[in-house]
Amino acid sequence: MSVKPRHDPLPSALVEAVAERFRVLAAPSRLRILDHLLQGPCGMAELAAATGLGQSNLSRHVAELERGGCVRRVREGRHVIVEVADPSLAPLCELVCGAIQAQAEDQHRRFTEA
After folding, report:
1. Per-residue pLDDT tens digits for 31-67
2. What pTM was computed for the model?
3. Which of 4, 46, 53, 58 has the fewest CB atoms in 10 Å of its CB?
């Protein structure tokens, strides 16, 4: 996949915002949460079971993802449903995960051929 290079430098405020988004996504627990939510919205109990995180730890990570604009919480009666707030996260995750998987497969292939 080729990426067209940008010709104009990014404004400082945009660089800061992008860095903050990547900081929010940098925690493995948050990536597990996001990975599960990319399959569809779910409640906190389901999210805890899917990620293996305790309720307190999960709430902290969901709050960080929400502050970063990645997810939102929607109250449905007595339940809180968490869903992806930024649809651009799905292709971003696919791109990054696919690239890392391809690199790992290439390294494995080169190692086994050596």
Report:
1. 999 999 999 999 999 999 999 999 999 999 999 999 9
2. 0.81
3. 4
Domains in the chain, ordered, with CATH? 12-86 (1.10.10.10)
Question: CA-to-CA distance for 40 and 22, rounded, in angstroms?
Answer: 22
Question: What are the tens digits of pLDDT across the range 9-37?
Answer: 889 999 999 999 999 999 999 999 999 99
Tokens representing 85?
């707030």
HEC letters along 6-53: CCCCCCHHHHHHHHHHHHHHCCHHHHHHHHHHCCCCEEHHHHHHHHCC
What type of residue is 9? P
Sign of CA pseudo-dihedral 8, 16, 66, 31: positive
34 in Cβ contact with 65 (< 8 Å): yes
